Automatic annotation (TrEMBL):
Key words of the record: Decarboxylase, Lyase
Full protein name: L-methionine decarboxylase
Keyword Lyase: yes
Entries under SUPFAM superfamilies matching the protein: PLP-dependent transferases (SSF53383)
Family, as annotated: Belongs to the group II decarboxylase family.
InterPro entries tied to this protein: Group_II_Decarboxylase (IPR051151), PyrdxlP-dep_Trfase (IPR015424), PyrdxlP-dep_Trfase_major (IPR015421)
Length: 609
C-alpha cells in the first residue's frame, strides 16, 4: 500500500501472539475468510523504517504461521547474501576485519555439531562435544603474545588463566571489573566450615582495626574516551566511581581545582588525541589512595573512535610509588583464623579490544634485525618504541597489569563477536565448587560458551607464520598512513575547485592509530561505506561532526581510492561548518536531596553510532 488510506483495508497478518496465524483466528471466529478488517495506518516504506537496510525489505523475511517453502527461504537468503556481499565490499568505518572467506572453507564441517565449551576451559567436564583443547591452544598462544607465564599451571600464582569469550570485549570488561571488585573489596569463595568440603560459601572480610575505613571500598577510574561497555559494567556491578564518591563525600575537594569530573579527562580534552591525561589521573588516584580506597583502574589500548592508546607504562611509573606510599602494593586479608590472603590494593585492567590483538605483532616486527625489510617498513610507520600494555610490563619490580581483554572479531576477524579474557591465578577470587551438572567449574561469565569461536581464532592464528602476522600488522599501518595522506590530498583537491567546506575536512589521526577521523560526509556516503560517526566538542565549545575509517587488514589501498573518489563527488559534503549544539529536550533542573550522580552515561559517540 502507498499513501494514506481513508477506507477500511483488508490486511493479512503473518501470525498471532501465540504462533497461530491471525487469518486462522479470524476465520475460526466467523469473521471472514481469513482476513481481518482494520483501519490501516499510513503505509511505511521499509527503507524509511530501516534506513540502514536500504537494499532489504522486511516483508521478505516475515515468517508466516505455516512457515516458508524451501524456495521462499532460499529466495530470502539469496537477497540477504546479495545485501551482505555489497556491504562487505564497502565496510570501512568500524573495527572489524571483513576477511572471512577462509572460515567457510576450513570450518563449515563443524556446523554439524553443537559445540558448547561450558565451564572452565582447563577442565574437560561432562559435556564432551566441545573444543576446549583448541581453546587452550588459543589461550596459550595469546599468553605468549602477551608475555604471560604459560602454559596454564593451576599451582603457579603467576600463571595466566583465561577463556574465550562468547561476546566481545564487553563480556571481558564486565568479567574483569567483577573480578576486580571482589578482589579489592575483600571477597572470597571458601569451603564452608564443618561441611566436609562439599559446599563453598562466598564471604566478605572485615578490615583490620588499624586499617582505614575505606579499605574494602574500591573506586573506579577511567577516561572520557572509554568504551560505553565500561559504564554499563560499573552500573551493573554497583562499583563506585571516583566521581560518585568525590561528589558525595568530598565536595569541593577535587585536586584538579574544579568540580569533580564524571570521568578522568583525556589528554587535550574531548577533541584531543584520545589517551588518558596522566597528570590528572595521578592527582585523582593519589587523593583516593591517601584516603585508603583500593584503586580499580581501567586503561584503553585502542579507543573506539580515535584508536588511541593510553600510555600504560607512564601511568604505572607515576602510580606505583603512590601505591607503595599508601600501603596499596600489598595488604593482608584474613578469612580463616590465622590464615590470610596477601592482596594488592590496586587492579589495572586493559581494554585492548583492538590494540591487544594488533600490537604484539608490531613488537615482533620491531624485534627483527634492523636491516630486515619488515623492520625497515615498521620504522617508516612508527618512530620510537612499541608501547607497553600486557603482562610483561614491570615497573619497580611490580607486574602492573592484572587483566586484559581483546575482541576476536576486530583484528583477527571472526564471523561473530568473540574475544579473549586473561588474568593471573593470583588475582582470582577462587573458582566455585565443581558442579555435578557440567563436571567443570563454572568459572566463566557466560556458562555455556560458543565452541566455534576458539576454532575461528585458532584458524586465524594457525593460517600464517608469526612473521606473516607481523607483516600484515605493518601493512595495516601503511594503509592507514595512505588513508590519511589521501584525505589530506582530497582536501587540497576540493580547495582547488573551490568546493572545500568552511573549516576544511578536520583530518586527524592519533599516534599509531589504525583509524583516521575527518569531517562527517553526507548520509548517502555514510550508508554506502558503513561509517561510524560521532559529534565531538571542540575547545571553543562548539560541536564538530566527525566520521572515521579503520584500516583493518581487509581495507586495501584500492578500497581507499574508491572511497576517496566518492568523497570527491559533488554533494559528498553538504553540512555546515562547526554547527551549534542541537536543541535538546529539557532536562532536570537539579537533583533531589538524596540523589547523587553515579556515572556519566553517554548517548552519543563511544561506539553508539
Amino acid at each position: 500500500m502507498t499513501g494514506h488510506a481513508t477506507e477500511p483495508q483488508h490486511v493479512d497478518f503473518p501470525y498471532g501472539p501465540d504462533g497461530t496465524s491471525w487469518s486462522a483466528l479470524v476465520t475460526s471466529a466467523g469473521l471472514g475468510e481469513g482476513r481481518a478488517t482494520v483501519i490501516a495506518e499510513p503505509a511505511r516504506d521499509p527503507r524509511q523504517a530501516y534506513p540502514e537496510q536500504d537494499e532489504l525489505d522486511i516483508a521478505d523475511f516475515e515468517i508466516p504461521a505455516e512457515g516458508m517453502s524451501a524456495q521462499q527461504r532460499k529466495r530470502a537468503l539469496n537477497r540477504l547474501e546479495t545485501y551482505l556481499v555489497g556491504k562487505h565490499e564497502t565496510m570501512v568505518g568500524f573495527q572489524g576485519n571483513q576477511d572471512m572467506a577462509r572460515y567457510q572453507q576450513d570450518l563449515a564441517r563443524f556446523m554439524e555439531f553443537h559445540l558448547n565449551n561450558v565451564g572452565d576451559p582447563f577442565q574437560q567436564g561432562n559435556y564432551k562435544p566441545n573444543t576446549k583443547i583448541v581453546e587452550r591452544a588459543v589461550l596459550d598462544h595469546y599468553a605468549s603474545l602477551w608475555r604471560a607465564a604459560w602454559p596454564y599451571d593451576a599451582e603457579n600464582p603467576d600463571s595466566y588463566w583465561g577463556y574465550v569469550l562468547t561476546m566481545g570485549s564487553t563480556e571481558g570488561n564486565l568479567y574483569a571489573l567483577a573480578s576486580a571488585r571482589d578482589y579489592l573489596s575483600g571477597k572470597k569463595l571458601i569451603t564452608e566450615p564443618g561441611d566436609g568440603g562439599d559446599q563453598m560459601v562466598y564471604v566478605q572480610a572485615v578490615p583490620a582495626s588499624e586499617e582505614p575505613g575505606n579499605a574494602n571500598r574500591p573506586v573506579a577510574f577511567y577516561s572520557e574516551d572509554t568504551h560505553y561497555s565500561v559504564i554499563k559494567a560499573v552500573r551493573t556491578l554497583a562499583i563506585d566511581t571516583f566521581a560518585a564518591v568525590g561528589r558525595a563525600e568530598y565536595p569541593g575537594q577535587c585536586p584538579l581545582g574544579m568540580d569533580w569530573p564524571m570521568e578522568v579527562p583525556s589528554r587535550g580534552g574531548p577533541d584531543g588525541t584520545g589517551e588518558i591525561d596522566v597528570d590528572a589521573l595521578e592527582q585523582l588516584v593519589t587523593f583516593f589512595a591517601e584516603r585508603g580506597h583500593p584503586v580499580l583502574l581501567l586503561l584503553n589500548f585502542g579507543t573506539t573512535f580515535k584508536g588511541a592508546y593510553d600510555n600504560i607504562e607512564k601511568v604505572a611509573a607515576r602510580l606505583i610509588p603512590v601505591f607503595e606510599r599508601t600501603g596499596l602494593l600489598e595488604r593482608e586479608i584474613e578469612f580463616e583464623p590465622g590464615r590470610t590472603d596477601r592482596r594488592r590494593g590496586f587492579w589495572v585492567h586493559v581494554d585492548g579490544a583492538l590494540g591487544a590483538g594488533f600490537m604484539p605483532f608490531l613488537r615482533i616486527a620491531a624485534a627483527e634485525d634492523r636491516g630486515s625489510d619488515l623492520a625497515l617498513q615498521l620504522r617508516r610507520e612508527i618512530k620510537g618504541k612499541i608501547p607497553e600494555f600486557d603482562f610483561g610490563l614491570v615497573v619497580d619490580g611490580v607486574d602492573v597489569v592484572s587483566s586484559l581483554v581483546m575482541s576476536g572479531h576486530k583484528w583477527p576477524g571472526a564471523p561473530w563477536p568473540c574475544g579473549v579474557f586473561m588474568t593471573k591465578n593470583k588475582f582470582r577470587v577462587e573458582p566455585p565448587s565443581q558442579p555435578a551438572y557440567t563436571g567443570s567449574p563454572d568459572t566463566t561469565f557466560a556458562g555455556s560458551r560458543n565452541g566455534l569461536s576458539p576454532l575461528v581464532l585458532w584458524n586465524d592464528l594457525a593460517s600464517k607464520s608469526i612473521r606473516e602476522h607481523a607483516a600484515e600488522a605493518v601493512r595495516a599501518l601503511r594503509t592507514t598512513r595512505y588513508l590519511e595522506s589521501s584525505l589530506r590530498e582530497l582536501e587540497d583537491r576540493l580547495d582547488r575547485e573551490d568546493r572545500l567546506p568552511d573549516g576544511g575536512l578536520y583530518v586527524d589521526r592519533s599516534p599509531m592509530a589504525l583509524t583516521v577521523r575527518f569531517r562527517k560526509p553526507a548520509d548517502h556516503v555514510i550508508e554506502k561505506w558503513s561509517l561510524s560517526c560521532q559529534p565531538i566538542r571542540t575547545g571553543s565549545g562548539r560541536i564538530r561532526h566527525y566520521a572515521h575509517v579503520f584500516a583493518m587488514s581487509s581495507v586495501t589501498e584500492e578500497k581507499v581510492d574508491a572511497f576517496i573518489e566518492d568523497l570527491f563527488a559533488e554533494g559528498a559534503f553538504d553540512r555546515p561548518h562547526d554547527v551549534a549544539e542541537p536543541q535538546r529536550r529539557a532536562g532536570a533542573q537539579t537533583f533531589a536531596t538524596d540523589v547523587r550522580p553515579l556515572a556519566l552515561v553517554p548517548v552519543i559517540g563511544r561506539g553508539f553510532q
